[in-house]
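Sharing in case it's useful to others searching the archive later.

Someone asked me privately for the predicted structure of NitT/TauT family transport system permease protein, so I'm posting the question and my answer publicly. Question first, with the sequence:
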Amino acid sequence: MAVQSTTPVASTRPATGARRKPVRAPLTRRQYLITSVVTFVLLLAVWTAVSTSGLVRPLFLPSPISVGEKLIDQAVNGQLWTDIAVSTYRVMVGYLLASVIAIPIGVLCGSIPRVEAAIEPIMDFIRYMPVVAFVPLTILWVGTDDSQKVLIIFLGTFFQQVLMVADAVRRVPMSYQNLGATLGLSRTKILVRIVFPSALPRIWDALRISLGWAWTWLVVAELVAATEGMGYRITQAQRFLETDLIIGYVIVLGVLGLVFDQVMRALGRQFFRYLKGRV
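And my answer, the predicted structure tokens:
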């Protein structure tokens, strides 16, 4: 007669009280900050090692020290601050002008099917056109002053903004609008009091992303017929093979974009604090 083994078999199931760590486990603010700083330090260390090892000529990759010294020279003679002020002015005027026009058009596209059918295909068509190709036309249209630079930045952000705002509006649950209709609100009041406030957090994210595009188009805007600005200085440095100045100004552009992005994030957290409690 076979004797049944009484040895307990190890269970493959986790203990009842054990909890698996989720894939996207949240970090504390301190952990996030430390990780970001360490990443930047590592990149700087790799850059320093490559540029000082002799593997790459300084003409192609100058050292961080050389770039820093060049930026200090530009800051001391005042050129850096002038370029930053001029470029920031151009970016903000073009971006704000595009946003003011794109938001209402995007809201209408996302909420009224007939407006969507009339406008969105055109927006989709134009947004694939390279903005660089419009540079000669903008010079013919508005000349070579700041208006031309602002127009390039406007063209680079406006069409994308319309589509992103429309998408944000379409994500508002239809049940919200049905509730407004049940309460007897008109279509205009439903749009103004329910749809737009509900879509506003996503619209803000769309504006934050498009602000990064505005900074990207700045260099294109300042390529032709400019006498000041970050893009103009980069173009001039290219002619004289001043690689350290080019990299320095590119870094400054990145820092400016990062600062504006963090300001938008902070404002979004303040404006939409009620989203913290949502799951």
